[in-house]
Amino acid sequence: MTPASPTCAKSGATGSSATTTYSVTTTVNDAGDDTSAIQNRINAAGAAGGGVVKLVAGTYIINGKLRMANNVKLEGAGPATILKAGPNFLSTTGPSGGYPIITTNRAVNTTITNLTADHSGNTLPVSINMGERQDEFVVDVRGGSNNLVDGVHVRNPFTYSIVAVATTKFCIRNSTTIVATSGKYDQLDGIHVLDSSFGDVIGNTIDQRVGTDGDDGLVAHTINGTTHDINYIGNKVRGGHRGNSMQLAVGNYSIYNLKIADNEFYGAPYGIRTGYYDNRTGSVNGVTLTGNYIHDLKAGYAFPDGSYDAIHIGDFGALGPITNVVATNNKACAAGKIYVAPGTGNLNQNNAIHAGTC
Q1: Closest by CA position to 132, among listed 102, 167, 159
Q2: How far is CA 151 from CA 75, 132, 180, 337, in A?
Q3: Is 3 a residue whose pLDDT tops 70?
Q4: 218-221 and 284-290: which strand pairing?
Q5: DSSP code per residue over 178-231
Q6: For a designed S-S bond to 135, which of 13, 97, 239, 335 qualifies (C-beta 3.0 to 4.6 A apart)?
Q7: Pick from 48, 36, 47, 180: nearest CA to 121
Q8: pLDDT by residue (tens digit) across 68-99?
Q9: Backbone phi, then psi, for 193, in 5-degree steps?
Q10: How many C-beta atoms lie closer than 10 Å to residue 2's C-beta?
């Protein structure tokens, strides 16, 4: 029996409710560009009020940038449905100036499901210093609301893999990301939540350390606004050489009301930590860390002197307050200590710390 998908409890996101099928007519597994064939069906479904754009198994060459439409579901047949960045992928940019394979582009009620997004970062001639890499991301949930990413597998990224940015009521579940390149890129995060609210990141498997280029596995980040009311539950995360298993990346805006529960974090220099940017004035408030298993941390490029802590909330140049952060019933093995900076309502208790491997 196939296990039930984890529930998007915090967001309530359901994605598209459409049922009418729009089949894509194109030849898979050849060298032809399939962008227009897929985009035309997305546009047709959107114009009709919604629809399910079906993709069969096989490799589709994407030289353009796919843009979702309201109430559209883009559905593959599983991991063998591959949207692969083609040889001319870098000749155009997406609506926000970057290089997504798929962007929701401020649409509402969308679903992206049962497919692989292959960014071709292992073969495309992309410079490590190409600034546009950080303007859009491989699977880019941007603006809008009620957007669901379910069973999407990102391979060979040259930017962040799956991102929710300036959006609300979103759910990313049952998905996987792998960073396998070495010495080609930096800033390759797994699932990154930026300036967004009321979301679920649940039941995903993130591996940032097959190669050496991987950065943070999971991220909650503020740049132009707050990030709040997010559940990170039941994920398995191997962090990368260049980052952490999970980072709360705090700028001038606050991060609050996060639940980080029942995850497995391993393989990076840190398990879960705060990082500070811009003026470092944002607060961290109402973060619950419970039932996480953090183990076998390892030194990396970002922290070459050794492995550090399973949980470390506060410090790192913080100027904003750390309040109501509760760390309980976590287990750390060969992963340093669990630390929460002093602050009103903070609690650090009933955690199991083992110096060696469990």
Answers
A1: 159
A2: 10, 27, 20, 34
A3: no
A4: unpaired
A5: E----SS-S-B-SEEEES-EEEEEES-EEE--SSS-B--SEEEE-SSS-EEEEE
A6: 97
A7: 180
A8: 999 999 999 999 999 999 999 999 999 999 99
A9: -110, 120
A10: 4
> CB atoms < 10 A from the CB of 278, how many?
12
Length of the chain in residues, anyone?
Answer: 358
Amino acid identity at 355: A
Which of 21-30, 122-131, 349-358 is the least confident region?
A: 122-131
Give the tens place of pLDDT for each residue, 294-336.
999 999 888 888 779 999 999 999 999 999 999 999 999 999 9
Q: Which residues contact 334 (CB under 8 A, 6 or more apart)?
A: 295, 296, 297, 307, 354, 355, 356, 357, 358
Angstrom distance (rounded) from CA 69 to CA 315: 43
pLDDT category of residue 195 using cuts at 50, 70 and 90:
very high
The answer to pTM > 0.90 is yes
Query: For residue 157, is pLDDT > 60?
Result: yes
* Number of alpha carbons in the 13 Å side-chain half-sphere of residue 287: 30
Residue 43 one-letter amino acid: N
Closest CA to 174 of 145, 205, 134: 205
